[in-house]
Specification:
The protein is mainly alpha-helical. It has a domain of 45 residues. Helices cover 35% and strands 0% of the residues. It is globular and about 40 Å long. The mean pLDDT is 88.
Length: 69
């Protein structure tokens, strides 16, 4: 996901496009088909960063965007 920062680059923002959400969902569906036991986790679960500033696992399960900011 490209984005996640406000225009001034001074802080986070949830500003992803509909196309990004759709592509992410398609990719995760394909990967879950190949690896059914895999858990969906975001970048922030593996690094001391906030990006992409959303709870990816919750979004994948529910379609609802929840900020982690």
């Amino acid at each position: 996901m490209i984005g996640g920062m406000n225009r001034s680059k001074s802080g986070p923002a949830i500003n992803y496009t509909d196309e990004q959400w759709e592509t992410l969902g398609t990719l995760l569906d394909e990967l879950k088909d190949q690896f059914p036991a895999a858990k969906v986790s975001g970048h922030c679960a593996f690094a001391k960063k906030t990006c992409p500033n959303i709870d990816e696992e919750f979004w994948y399960d529910t379609g609802e965007v929840v900020s982690t900011i």
